[in-house]
Amino acid sequence: MQLTNSQRSFLSKVHFAVVSTIASDGMPHQTVMWYMLHGDKLLLSTPNGSLKHKHLKRDNRISVCVEKGYAYVTLTGKVTMNEEPVSARKDYDLLGKRYRSTFNPFMILGFMARGAITSLRHKLNGETPQKDTNRMQDMFTRDRVTLHMQVEKIHSNSLD
User: Fold this and answer.
1) Are the CB atoms for 156 and 11 separated by under 8 Å?
2) Considering only the top CATH level, what class is 5-102+143-157?
3) How many CB atoms lie within 10 A of CB 134?
4) Largest CA distance in the chain
5) Domain ranges of the chain
6) Which stretches within 25-104 are classed as H helix?
7) Can you give the pLDDT of all 160 residues of the chain as single tens digits?
């Protein structure tokens, strides 16, 4: 399905997307994600082994809603996945550059502080954490999977 010029223009701007996958119990699983329009497809990225990744391996149907107030575009379709770590990391870096202006330094410091405090609490209690609790470090070092969404249906409001 083809995007209109106004839908394409809207999606080309930096907004956040709410992405829905289908959980193993059939219920929707929604997360806020970065996206980038790449031709007539959406490019997204998720951590390898994440719930979203597991859901899409089982059922590759996806729904994406991008909004700004009452203006929105909802896209539904299917994804193909690139699980090759080097090229998936390059795609994630492209998304990071696109969203760099949205970074809030206090949010980043908060992630880092929470990770450090949790690690310290485990050490003080004589516990060994199950995994690294630094979410920011995890975001930048964990292997990624690129999602290429082929759009099958489009619905929008206040854009045509």
Assistant:
1) no
2) mainly beta
3) 18
4) 60
5) 5-102+143-157
6) 51-58, 85-99
7) 799 999 999 999 999 999 999 999 999 999 999 999 999 999 999 999 999 999 999 999 999 999 999 999 999 999 999 999 999 999 999 999 999 888 776 766 676 677 777 777 878 888 876 555 555 556 667 899 999 999 999 999 999 7
Pair 32, 42: CB distance under 8 Å: no
- 92 phi and psi, to 5 degrees? -65, -40
Look at phi and psi of residue 91 and say left if phi exceeds 0, alpha if psi is from -120 to 50, else beta. Answer: alpha
What is the Cα–Cα distance from 2 to 4, expressed in whole angstroms?
Answer: 6
DSSP state of 151: E
What are the angstrom distances between the C-alpha of 136 and each of 30, 107, 108, 141?
21, 10, 7, 9
For residue 16, give the 3-state DSSP assignment.
coil
Taking the model in full, what pTM does it have? 0.81
Sheet hosting strand 17-22, strand order edge to edge: 28-33, 17-22, 61-68, 71-82, 144-157, 41-47, 36-38
